[in-house]
Write the structure tokens for this entry.
Amino acid sequence: MTLVWSEINKLGKWAPVDSEEHIDPSELNVGHAYDRLDDRHVRRLTDSISQHGYSPEQHGQLGLNITDHGENIYHHADGSETHPEDHLHHAHLLKALQNMGHGPVPVHLHDQASDPEGEPAPRYWHGTTVKDLEQVHPNHGTKGNFGNNLGVHEPGYAYATSRRSAEHYADQAALTHGGRPRVYEVHPNGPVEKDPQYDGNGNHRGNNDDDVRSRHGFTVVGEEDLGHHDKDDDWH
């Protein structure tokens, strides 16, 4: 267990807080660029909401995640109009509601910011060889998005870890696939859970004790200086 994670585990009083508020969609900002959205998906959601009215159960509920680094909208609920594995669905839904000029809608608030009385929230990092990383999206394959070959990371989750473990994963990815190891500090776009170390059969999954995962991905807030000043493709 790393010193960083040991300090995090001492913060027994800190815990995220969940609540619900009605918020006007015009007051919310999506965490992804609108130019990446599928206009057809937005129109389908707009038409469905226009015909039947907005239903969180049918269309998905907007979720507002609050961290020390700001606020992020994330998709929260399942439903017949939703695509729970699509990290952009929440952006499509928000865009549809904004296009309609829809009034306040119920928004799930997940507050992961530091305790105002002084308890700091956990910090997370992600190791990779990807340059200029902005988002760590949920994994759609079976190899994981740390860039390793262990095959332990499940589809539908994005992963983060301690600073030291992130550097280990970055080095492993560079040695396996080439490129330069990079470590980014990230903050979660939604609820985070500990990554299980054992599968349903009791076999160790090959991950580290301080790994965490989220179905909502992570946003990069900065890159760490690892002291590598050689060319990206020449690191060994």
